Amino acid sequence: MSRIFSYDDTIAAIATPLGPGGIGIVRVSGPSVVEIYHRIFRPTHTTDRQVISHRLTYGWVFDPSTGEDVDEAMAVVMKSPASYTREDVLEIQCHSSPALLHKVLEICLANGARLAEPGEFTMRAFLNGRIDLSQAEAVLDITTARAELAGHLALSHLKGLFSQEVADIRRHLVDALASVEAAIDYPEEDVEILGEASLVKDLKSRIRPRVLSLIEAYGRGKVLREGVEVLIVGRPNVGKSSLLNAMACEDKAIVTPVPGTTRDLVEAEIDMDGLAVRLVDTAGIRTDPDPVEQIGIKKIEERLHDTALVLWVMDISTPVDAEDLSVGEALSPLQEEKILIVLNKTDLIDQDPEYLARERLRSIGKILGGTRQHPYICLSAKKGVALDRLSLAIRQRVVSDHTAAQLKIAPNLRQKRALENALISIDRACAALDQGVSPELVSIDLKDAILALEGITGEDITEEVLGHIFSRFCLGK
Ligand SMILES: Nc1nc2c(ncn2[C@@H]2O[C@H](COP(=O)(O)OP(=O)(O)OP(=O)(O)O)[C@@H](O)[C@H]2O)c(=O)[nH]1
Ligand SMILES: [Mg+2]
User: Which domain holds residue 379?
Assistant: First the structure.
């Protein structure tokens, strides 16, 4: 870690994002908080001169070097340890103009505080034992959450549900270690490692699956944290760009009646009922593409691999044609579950859309391979009909297998790596026990597994990892 944090000084930063808004907060934490409060804040009511912890006080921030009032504000002192960092904390709620907030911050810096490093408030909360490391990381995830579901995931980490599960697994490993150590300490007793067979069974059938299921939850958590990519494909002119625009509520892509309007990828980030979705509009796929269109198709093929879902758009008002079929061909490397069919332009038909939809699906049935009905949505991008059904279908496809419990305990990448290391050590310990290797070696493996888990909650975390984690924070957090 290149930065050295020292914990006996007082830090300050602007804690709210700079930009238009109602109020902005300058946060100060450390031993000089009360002194700084008296120096720079003048309560309007003289009865408020005395600091009462957790009481919001109305008054003025002023610059003691000039005596000049800077902003009308509310200030609150939270005395240690009942504060975010467990130190004395001062929060000044001012008007939110960036110039003003910087001025208030400057005054704090001129009167006994130094500028906080990114993440330093949360680092202090961690170092003072108020939160564990996975909770500290959750603070970061909440502040950067791209959509509501990601926020939920981070919140449950903050509440410590993930840490509790890890701590519980660790406790089981410590129990296992204790029985192995007993066999080392009292070899003459000939204690077979506390029922060696039952120990292996315990490791294999009770501890290992729990570690594994946490690792597997990573992928699902990642979906929520980072969002998913959904590709819109189809032959020219079926309304792909119109769909993108309608879903994004914004004219992102050019729409014209001329087939072949879109030549390149156009993206829009959408919050779909709490799920962050990156919708990608693509160039129409034709049977005999020109060189520019060929490049467009190549780009689609490159994206197919990583995309969570493909919306195959067709025009319900016209029969399936050769170009539709060439789209199907381009999608053939994809798993069937990754394709959702969208039958657009329902406003142009008089017949029952369900009847026509089945007709169209029959024509492409062979391409999708399956005998059962492929899922589809009928809608009108132009008229904005049934777009909510599409959002719901996308969301169900992408987050369908999330049970509430799994969601609460999805690790982040660092935590997943630590869990994988723990799993390797657990497997080694099991193998060693199976082979009747000396208990000393089993004990080393179990200790490695325990250490790996402790790295998650921060009980044995190296300074380097800490610096890396906290430097991802923004200032003021
Ligand atoms: N009536 C009707 N027209 C639509 C609908 N969606 C799109 N259109 C029209 O269809 C034409 C093509 O729409 P686009 O959104 O540009 O289609 P595209 O699939 O992106 O076409 P390319 O970029 O050329 O591949 C435009 O004239 C749209 O106004 C719809 O739901 N109903
Ligand atoms: Mg287009």
Answer: 227-402
Indicate whether 6 pLDDT > 70.
Answer: no
Angle, CA of 31, 455 and 470, to the nearest 5°: 45
CATH at 390:
3.40.50.300
Tokens of 131: 């939160």
Task: Classify residue 150: in a domain, yes or no.
Answer: no
**Choice among 262-266, 305-309, 343-347, 385-389 with the minimum mean pLDDT:** 305-309
Q: Which of 366, 384, 402 is the last residue of a domain?
A: 402
| Residues 219, 323 within the same domain | no
Torsion, Cα 78 80 82 86, to 10 degrees, reads: 110
The pocket around ligand 1, CB under 6 angstroms, is made up of 234, 236-242, 255-257, 259-262, 284, 344-345, 347-348, 380-382
| Residue 148, pLDDT score | 65
Tell me if 344 sits within 8 A of 238, measured CB to CB. Answer: yes
Contact 260, 293 (CB under 8 A): yes
Judgement on whether residues 378 and 416 belong to the same structural domain of the protein:
no
Kindly report the protein residue whose alpha carbon is nearest to atom 24 of ligand 1.
260
Confidence bin at 255 (pLDDT 50/70/90): very high
Q: Is residue 136 part of a domain?
A: no
Nearest ligand 1 atom, CA 380? 31
Q: At what angle do helices 133-144 and 148-158 cross, to 10 degrees?
A: 160
Number of structural domains in the chain: 3
Of 397, 395, 407, 404, nearest to 216 (Cα)? 407
